[in-house]
Batch of 3 targets.
Target 1
Amino acid sequence: MSKLTIAVDTLGGDLGAEVVVAGAIQAVTEFSDINLVLVGPKDEISGLLKKHPSSNRIEILHAPDVILPSESPTLAFRRKKESSIVVGLKHVKEGHASGFVSAGSTGALLTGATVIIGRQKGIERPALGTLLPTPKGFTLLMDCGANMDAKPSYIKQFGEIGADYMKRVMGVNNPRVGLINVGAEEEKGNAAAKEAHILLKAADLNFIGNIEGREISTGTVDVAVCDGYTGNIVLKFMEGFAKTMLGMIKEELMSTTLSKIGALMAKGAFGRLKKRFDYREVGGAPFLGLNNIVIKAHGSSDALAIKNAIRQCVIFERSNN
Amino acid sequence: MSKLTIAVDTLGGDLGAEVVVAGAIQAVTEFSDINLVLVGPKDEISGLLKKHPSSNRIEILHAPDVILPSESPTLAFRRKKESSIVVGLKHVKEGHASGFVSAGSTGALLTGATVIIGRQKGIERPALGTLLPTPKGFTLLMDCGANMDAKPSYIKQFGEIGADYMKRVMGVNNPRVGLINVGAEEEKGNAAAKEAHILLKAADLNFIGNIEGREISTGTVDVAVCDGYTGNIVLKFMEGFAKTMLGMIKEELMSTTLSKIGALMAKGAFGRLKKRFDYREVGGAPFLGLNNIVIKAHGSSDALAIKNAIRQCVIFERSNN
């Protein structure tokens, strides 16, 4: 391959294959040096492609089956050999593509990617990262749910693969890594965090020590690491709390005529704020620590989100060469 | 005692004894049926009391020493027998007061309260609760940091003491208890959460099952339980994230003239929002599972926060009789 090739799952997203195809078209338009492989039912995809100007940089890889989020990831992954996730990951494993994007079942993608693509040398467990918006840019939170009872050595490795990602994809020089904990002092935390602190300190990283919960969103660090149970809860709490807070703001703004008019005048500002919290601008959550890059796009991804998830793969792979 | 007596620590808060004395005066004015015991240096307190109209319902209990937040809680608690925390807790233990309020060192208060006052029958570990604002009222999050590696049985008991508090202090009928976890399914989570789910299900509680991070702030449950490591991180993340979000809103509002004017008109709405997130309105974090009620007031508590922390004790104790 002279050009970079990315495989894209057309199945499993909430909005169907149509938005994935549209996102793929956007991606080949934006990046003239990439090829895409759309994985899914051949007939459906070629039908959808006909709605767009034709591109010789998009090909189709037939996969008739889909793994639903409701299925047991490990069982479905083993049984559904013709599912888009299994077919797409194998395509990457065989060297036909350098990365994989999917808006499908998180569990099946994590299990499948680990088994088929395989772990990077020296990494015991791959982990799911998420870029959280901060006043200064983004902080990569990881693990966001791949490893429930993470050993201290896993948490240390999250720091390593997370720092590598921030360097390569976000262009951060010497990324600051922090351990999410209940206090700044080294001896604070649960048993895993205490030991992870010691390992992170000894690692070849710009480890700045423990950070408390309130520092996760302030841009104090570029990579914030913790076990996947805590990370998942923090991430989802952020989503819920942002919604709760915006709801409360709306309620208060609508409670008097004066503030209603004020809100109308400030509408543009709220639009810009919403955009800063819009996951579609980021694209997806990188699943790191594997031999190839895998991006978990949000289940409700639209064309823009899919395009940006492909962009994440492109930037990651370009930094490799 | 015919009247309810609450002991109040005048030392250890960021704003000094002055605001504690002012909060105590507010409390005896609001509640005609309580007595207060102010614990701290006798001369300083009587000097401060002179600035207010005299009350025969406030007495002073001499304690010349203070435990600083920078000190090791267990060491300080053992060495400083004349500290306000030790003297105040002993006063409660001896039956001279029914509850204790302190804005001092959290660690020393938790250690001291557990050792001096003692655990409630059937409760292995007391826990720190925090009332989080939701669109519908409050959700009690616990444990917020007293138990780092909480056993499943502790987490179950957090549900029991939390539900009791919500019933007694917040007047919630049949409080809904949820286990903070990474998915709704029973088999999800880390090892402790999986086992805690089984114990909570079997307990005599209105257990509604697992809740994900995004449901903590939506009012889906009255009591949200988890280990103290996770709870502390969620709580502090909320504080930091609310600040980050309000900062971003401000930044966007100030970026155009139109939205600047709009913001000015909507100022009242933002003021009301801030009040809903103001910890001073709640007063403090209850330390539950002990033989008496202990309230950890925020370190930066002012007179209003102290008064409301005393109010929490009063309501808790009244519901007992």
Target 2
Amino acid sequence: MSKGTLTVISGFSGAGKGTLMKRLLERHGNYVLSISATTRSPREGELDGREYFFKTREEFEEMIARDQLLEYACYVGNYYGTPRSWVEEQMAAGRDVLLEIEIQGARNIKKKYPEALLIFVSPPSAQELLRRLTGRGTETPEVIQSRISRAAEEAQGMDDYDYLLINDDLECCVGQLDQLIQSAHRRMSENLEFAGKITEELQKMKGE
Amino acid sequence: MSKGTLTVISGFSGAGKGTLMKRLLERHGNYVLSISATTRSPREGELDGREYFFKTREEFEEMIARDQLLEYACYVGNYYGTPRSWVEEQMAAGRDVLLEIEIQGARNIKKKYPEALLIFVSPPSAQELLRRLTGRGTETPEVIQSRISRAAEEAQGMDDYDYLLINDDLECCVGQLDQLIQSAHRRMSENLEFAGKITEELQKMKGE
């Protein structure tokens, strides 16, 4: 059985990352979504080990000290991070792990796992992004403006990603994401065992 | 319209490269097979510009001198090479160019086009390769032995390829090859124009 891949998905708020990943998880059972560790308190209905791994500040800082996180960041006074052991267990079991994080986290993952796939999801245009943010009808103009400002900043970091997915048609985009990740299994670096084995077999056969 | 990709396909004799590429070309019209230039004489039924571009030795050596070949090699006293202009025209027209060449040529292509996809096609095992070579029933044991020796040498160079395709089930393998090449269009390096444009649009929108 071949090892699973690690895919980092980032993109503008309003690009449709959430729905995209949900559909991909439904598509086949080989995909799993990474569960973050956090120091924030569980909200109603959230379960430890399902939505998050809930940790105390001390526990989280010990995880940092022991290099047990693939990446972590601090937002509004709380830590959020990706536990290394869970991800590595899933990959060893042959599952393709999906990780939805922001650019700094994505860069850190790439440092630890150069073979990770960094994918940036974008709507087809800035105008369409604005339309989607406005169309929700739930946000104030100030919130929308701050999302746009944020997106303008995030766009500066797009070059650091390996792939760009334009989420125009959702089903088409899910298909492209699936193809991308499945194609990564064909990389020579993931098939060195096979390459070594057939080389050896041919050498033996040649000598006979 | 986005630029086409350049894909180099190599693999053991008996791996099924020919059928694989034929099926891929049938699949959709965006694929084209590169036409080699050669100094060998046309065989009956071969047309200049269809099977090969037939050249005199002087013409071929002038193409070498003018760097008009992406790669070339000499076999049994004749030159064979890949004309740069034809490949570049096809890619500029958005077509995905397929090139069936051997390892040294593949390495040369990668030097000139780092973004080229180098794909190695292998049967699932050495035993299966032997079975396919024997099964043709047209080759003498000596020819089969020399093919195996050749394959044993070629196997040493597999590591230089980006991807490995195991041709077990033909239709499945065609699908994987198609996915691989189509996914390459999603690479950030092929989408810098889009990334630049949306970044600019968002900056403008932020300033408004």
Target 3
Amino acid sequence: MSAIEFYFDFSSPYGYLASTQIDDIAARYGRTVEWCPYLVGTAMKATGHQPMVNTPMFRDYVLVDVPRFARLLGVPFKLADSFPLVATAASRAYYWLQGQDPERAHAFAKAAYHAFFGEGKDISKVDELQAVGDSCGTDGKRLAEAARDQAVKDLFKQKNDAALAKGVFGSPYILVDGEPFWGADRLYQVEKWLETGGW
Amino acid sequence: MSAIEFYFDFSSPYGYLASTQIDDIAARYGRTVEWCPYLVGTAMKATGHQPMVNTPMFRDYVLVDVPRFARLLGVPFKLADSFPLVATAASRAYYWLQGQDPERAHAFAKAAYHAFFGEGKDISKVDELQAVGDSCGTDGKRLAEAARDQAVKDLFKQKNDAALAKGVFGSPYILVDGEPFWGADRLYQVEKWLETGGW
């Protein structure tokens, strides 16, 4: 069976929450997960939506809801001063590393999310990105440099375009054998789908 | 303990899905539910959001997701030709009836939601609204007339303003002792909150 496709934006708190669960959920059903960072902003240009944190009323809700959801899941959460950020550098670094070593890229994605939302570090800064890379046993300096390579920029643009072409517009947005599930609060439905094969 | 506040728009499919569950969830914890129809459009003027069904990509998702969610819950779903509609008449009728007979108003709200999303009937039309009223043992003709009374219009405007003042912006939007939960996919968190008293 094909891998579960896990689309997320490194700047999305709900993507972070889902990222702490998705591998375990998949593993319970013998499935793997392909982590696919992209920029939700790309989809927002198509949908006309605004980030919830920039929207009156939604913002107040999100600031209550995300920490509460993190407590329910038992995962650390600390909102960075730099939130929201444009997660281009981390995403490009991820795809560069994926080309070298997919398993390490996976570890990097988890570590980058943890650094930003678990510890409140600004992963849009070169030194923090480098530190995350180093913590995963890759060459952080090389990783941070790679994020500025034109070829890597082009690759990430292709990844964004491909996500958009699949109709992906949110974070997290999960495809299970083509079946779409949007939102961290749908993880129980993702699990049910894996368990039952659909309903 | 105070009633759980269940805010919804009669034109919202996710509000409908939640409406089929919320009373049972509350009853399991000895709680009652105050049903509070309002117009999400009122909040959208404040938030700048658009209905998902009018938004590219979101629309495609919703048309997959809502029937799938209904199947998971085992509740009927039929998208009306008249969807989306402006649910002013049904909402006004509800508040008028609530002033006469709160239990019957509750039954009316359930029946109106079922007529629109379970059977695909256009509840913005006077004859359908009247039929829903009749099916609940009230005088449907009187109910449909009441929805056009100026006093009832004013009352509904107050209800909308009050929802907005509480920060309500979605459908469903559920307040459990002041704690907000947005979305039909949060019902499991509402239940957990009732079970544990919060976390």
